[in-house]
Batch of 2 targets.
Target 1
Amino acid sequence: MERANDEGVTIPVGRGLPGVVVGGKTSGIDLDDIEQFPEDGEGACSQGGALVHEVVEQGAMQLDGESYGTAHQLGLAAQDEYDNSERGPESTTVNPDGTITRTTIYTSEDEDGNTVYTVQEVTIDQNTDQIINVETTQR
Ligand SMILES: [Zn+2]
């Protein structure tokens, strides 16, 4: 495949990065945000899944010149594969204290092949762009 760039991928990594919630368009990865996710995905997004998402996304943008939208979809697919779950509908709520909570429903299978629904609520302080809480619940 023709690459837009053969120089490799550069991803600044830090903690408490302003303007960065996990990662995204800005090409930084915020480890403080990643650490809020469960180590084991528990049926939803894990720390590893979040990291894989951002690295694949940056690779698609920097190496292949993909748009953020396309790169994000590739990142999501890689995350789902890593976590062995499938990301479903997402909604965003503004909380009374001004923080926002993004609620995403994931589906996965238990060892008997039954579908398991997992709700993951990610609460973000928009003033600091920090994830302040991640709650993962199987329904
Ligand atoms: Zn993304």
Target 2
Amino acid sequence: MDISLLTGFAVVLTEAVYSFYKRVHAINFGVYGSTMVGKTTLSHQMRTRGEVPQIKHRTVGLERASRKIIKIDGNANTIRSADVGGESMYWRAWIDDIQKRNVKYIIFMIDHRHLDSPANLDHQLAWKFLVDGICASVWPNGKKKKNEDYPLAVGIWANKHDIWGEKHKHEGEIDKHPIFEPFKYGMQKLNEKGIPCFKYIVSAKSQPEMVYRGIMTMIKDY
Ligand SMILES: Nc1nc2c(ncn2[C@@H]2O[C@H](COP(=O)(O)OP(=O)(O)O)[C@@H](O)[C@H]2O)c(=O)[nH]1
Ligand SMILES: [Mg+2]
């Protein structure tokens, strides 16, 4: 048989195996952030693409992780994430979730409440707790972290863009928007630890395309 035909076959086979592998092996994502930012909405959006109905129930503690297939531009990846509450009593559960599932990609969700009322520190406090937990060299249970225990990337996702994009208009580049301002120090801290951190904007409720693209970009770029 012609050797080029054979290698051609091998390439096709490799691609098939690879796409099968990507379906079976889920990449662990962690979605954290204050209460009411849109974590449960994002979780719904990843399972069923489209407009997510208003979420009425508040998430209590840490729910079981579930698989979601993220497909965009002909690429498919399977990710696994768990929905978790945002109240400060659940923050410890975020770190435990990162440890238990060996979370590779972290999404920290915010909205525009700190722009609406500068006295509101929900995001800033949650962010500080999360960054400190990620950068710490030991887990809360005292176990020492290994190199591979640190996440590959952290994304700050400014959700509800459909609202704050109108309400808090900003001239110039979107990543310079004041909504990201209070998170600079934590981003720097993560970068110094060797963990890349980037800004992203979404409307988890109504813009599935933005959600899927954001996840794909994290997997591809980091
Ligand atoms: N306008 C708008 N509302 C959103 C968006 N994402 C979530 N919400 C709303 O924000 C509220 C809190 O959402 P939820 O997913 O329960 O937040 P969680 O507490 O972080 O899980 C709900 O009323 C959602 O409908 C969005 O992109 N745009
Ligand atoms: Mg929730």
